[in-house]
Amino acid sequence: KIFTLNLYETENSYPLFLFNYLIYCFILILHYKCSKIFLKSTELALLSVLIYSCLTNSYLYLKHAVPYDSSLLILYYSFYKSILYQQIENTTPFRYFKLGVIATFGYLVYPGFFPLVFLIGLFVLLYNPHDELIFKRFKKIFFLIIGGISLLVCFELLSNIGGKSFLSASRELSSTI
Length: 177
Description:
Elements: H1 13-39, H2 42-53, H3 65-87, H4 93-109, H5 114-126, H6 134-161, H7 166-174
Helix pairs in contact: 1-2, 1-3, 3-4, 3-5, 4-5, 4-6, 5-6
């Protein structure tokens, strides 16, 4: 409307493409950081990024790119933070609460990636570089879940004010994926 262009004209896709490409670059940076932690080699981490960047990703199409890649970025960031938190011996429960909020926000951006939220929880439960007690691991998971549920409750209440149910809509969406 600002530039008197039709909604579907090619000139309208440039800002969306640039935004999505920026998201994609951040995903590559997170991929490098996670790969460097797990592979313990800069060269292998860079090779991993090169291989990942050669895949056909959603930066090639724009119709659904924004929610998919934005959600992937948020969830990848959550996974990266969970790796860092697991490296710290005495991390606070509030960090896992925030991690649950961030991971759930990634789910809220695009509900199709809900398995990644469970993967983050499973990683926190099973990955244990400090050989801590199982009670401490479940305590971390508890705060992760509480953070996620609190954000889900807020979104559900807000959507109910608008006359819809977010959880019902996302359940219907999951049957089409």
